[in-house]
Amino acid sequence: MTPKFVAGLLTFLLGAATAEANLTRLQIDHREVVLNGQPFGAAGPYEKLAGKVHFALDPALPQNRGIVDLALAPKNAQGLVEFWADFYLLKPVDPGRGNGRLVYEAGNRGMKRILPVFQDASNSNDPATAQEFGNGALMRQGFTLLWMGWQWDVPEGRMRMEIPIATHSGQPITGWVRGNFIPGANLSSALIADRGHQPYPVVDPDSAEHRLLVRTLPTDPPRGNAENGERIFRANCASCHRVNNRGGRLGPDLSRIGNARSREVMVRRIRGAVEENGAGYAPVTLTTPGGQQVQAVKKNEDLFSVQVMDTRERIQGYVKSDLKEVKDETKSAMPPFGTDRLSESQLDDVVRYLMTLKGFDPTVK
Question: In terms of DSSP bridges, do strands 144-148 and 102-105 run parallel, antiparallel, or are they unpaired?
Answer without folding.
Answer: parallel
